[in-house]
Design brief:
By secondary structure, the protein is an alpha/beta fold. It folds into 4 domains: 151 residues, Rossmann fold; 111 residues, 2-Layer Sandwich (Transcription Regulator spoIIAA), CATH 3.30.750.210; 120 residues, Transcription Regulator spoIIAA (2-Layer Sandwich); 53 residues, OB fold (Dihydrolipoamide Acetyltransferase, E2P), CATH 2.40.50.140. Helix content is 37%, strand content 21%. The protein has 15 helices and 19 strands. A 6-stranded parallel beta sheet has the order 2-1-3-4-5-6, with helices on both faces. Strands 15-16-17-19-18 form a 5-stranded mixed barrel. Strands 7-10-11 form a 3-stranded parallel beta sheet, with helices on both faces. α2 runs parallel beside α7. It is globular, with a radius of gyration of 23 Å. The chain starts with a helix and ends with a strand. Bound molecules: S-adenosyl-L-homocysteine (SAH), iron/sulfur cluster (SF4) and FE3-S4 cluster. FE3-S4 cluster binds next to α3 and α8.
């Protein structure tokens, strides 16, 4: 069936085929260039969306004859997939890139490349161009599927390549994927973001919101299940708006469709935006037996004036009513969230509304961030009179408060039996996660990794639980 590709923003089959030809070219160049199997080190900063992108970058590298290492000293090709969401994230990348300089000096054949969200900002790639001459290849989030062509240009000309043009965004299907884990799978269902929360850089570096075709999502889910994957996480900046504007099914329907696939696996998703979270979605969650009862629903602030200034599109009351509904249909639901402390102009009284919201809801855990100004966003132009030290005190107050809440919630779980996906073994203790995404450890063996077991909780500290096999 022919599709209108202008609507789905899907890269044409011909273009993907052309990249496959470049893959073969790179493969023959690297075979001639190295007397060993070339090694790539791909390091990922940022969110799961970036992790999923890196799995596609690694898939392409594997198809071009590369094997992989975690050690830059051993590598022939180093690729950092970067994150721009906060200053701290960016500083870490610059620090890591600086540290590669002596490694490059010791190994002049090493090719250093940077990609991802940071590279989609002009002031960043200009800085790399000027101050980091040993970086050979730079590309943004819109060029991931063109790695073979870009790498071929670097290899065949020896010149620096910068592919950083901004774009509304496209979807590349049919890329090879090399997954990091065998029993946990990341499955992107949409890319980009249209929300323009006033503090956030993501819509600028990731382009407009676009959804993958449901057939493509379901095909990848089937592949994951067939390969033994036990937990599929559906990914997007705002999964609740899946399908909007593309004539596709909505997110609740997609969830039901993935749930209906045969197999022994569970489903998670992130991130949900409260603006688009509906009772229909929460009903779908409750009714789908494979969907974990964990909802990551970032609220950012508990104060209506601040929420408005953040351009979040919901109020405190709307958020709390969603939480009420979720608990009504799933009494065991585990709620987690993101919060920003010290948004420009936020007062201490307004911050106290955030504190009271976390007390009211009782989250399992929180990701807390001090506001970080991002070049080009609306909030970066707002007066920001509160000092960093003061924000630091508010931050501490918030994390102390959450610690107590989390400890009480963990205590309440003592004696209960939870389903746990076993992830790794260290010193005879298995580390895993409950359906509610709470970390737990218990005595067990390597053979349990990648399986679900029932664990009785015997000890609770903060958000960390310990237990014993229940059967
Ligand atoms: N799309 C997701 C969030 C993606 S970014 C959502 O809307 O929920 C992850 C988190 O980083 C955000 O939820 C927010 O809490 C934080 N964040 C984003 N920009 C930030 C900034 N400029 N300063 C501090 N925290 C920020
Ligand atoms: Fe950023 Fe808001 Fe989009 Fe999330 S929804 S990625 S916070 S703009
Ligand atoms: Fe960072 Fe880009 Fe994700 S800015 S949080 S890696 S979308």
């Amino acid at each position: 069936m022919l599709r209108d590709l202008t609507q789905t923003a899907e890269i044409s089959f011909d273009e993907i085929k052309q990249q496959r030809e470049y893959m073969n070219l790179v493969k023959s160049v690297v075979e001639a260039r190295y007397d060993h199997v070339p090694l790539a080190m791909v390091h990922t900063f940022g969110c799961q969306g970036n992790v999923a992108d890196s799995e596609r970058l690694k898939g392409q590298l594997a198809a071009m004859g590369f094997d992989f290492t975690d050690d830059a000293q051993q590598a022939d090709f180093v690729l950092y997939n970067t994150c721009a969401v906060r200053e701290h994230a960016q500083d870490r990348v610059f620090g890591n890139v600086g540290a590669l300089k002596p490694i490059k000096e010791a190994n002049p054949n090493l090719i250093i490349a940077l990609c991802g969200c940071m590279m989609q900002q002009e002031h960043v790639w200009q800085k790399i161009k000027k101050s980091y001459p040993f970086v050979k290849l730079v590309f943004g989030t819109h060029a991931i599927h063109r790695l073979p062509e870009m790498l071929y240009r670097v290899l065949s000309t020896g010149k620096r390549v910068f592919e950083v043009a901004n774009s509304d965004g496209t979807i590349a299907e049919g890329l090879p994927v090399r997954r990091d884990g065998s029993f946990k799978g990341w499955l992107p269902i949409m890319y980009g973001c249209n929300n323009f929360c006033s503090y956030c850089i993501v819509p600028y570096v990731r382009g407009r919101e676009r959804s993958r075709r449901s057939e493509a999502v379901l095909a990848e889910a089937r592949e994951l299940i067939a390969s033994g994957c036990k937990e599929i996480t559906l990914l997007g900046q705002n999964v609740n708006s899946y399908g909007k504007g593309s004539g596709e099914m909505d997110f609740a329907s997609l969830l039901r469709a993935v749930n209906a696939l045969p197999g022994d696996f569970k489903i998670r998703f992130m991130t949900s935006h409260p603006k688009d979270c509906t009772p229909a979605l929460l009903d779908a969650m409750a009714e789908c037996e494979k969907v974990c009862h964990h909802l990551h629903l970032p609220f950012q602030s508990g104060n209506d004036r601040v929420l408005k200034a953040m351009n979040r599109g919901y109020t405190r009351a709307k958020y709390l009513s969603l939480v009420d509904y979720a608990r009504r249909v799933m009494p065991d639901i585990s709620l987690t969230s993101d919060v920003i402390v010290g948004f420009p102009g936020e007062t201490y009284e307004e911050f106290c509304d955030t504190l009271s919201l976390i007390e009211t809801v009782g989250f399992t855990s929180l990701f807390t961030f001090i506001y970080s100004p991002r070049v080009g966003t609306k909030a970066a132009g707002l007066p920001d009179p509160v000092s960093r030290e003061e924000k630091g005190r508010w931050f501490k107050e918030l994390t102390d408060c959450q610690e107590q809440i989390a400890a009480a919630r963990s205590q309440a779980m003592l004696g209960t039996v939870q389903t746990v996906l076993c992830e790794e073994v260290k010193d005879g203790r298995v580390n895993g996660r409950t359906d509610g995404n709470i970390m737990i450890d218990f005595a067990g063996e390597e053979s349990l990794i990648g399986t679900y077991v029932r664990v009785r909780i015997t000890k609770a500290r903060n958000w960390l639980l310990s237990g014993e096999l229940a059967e």
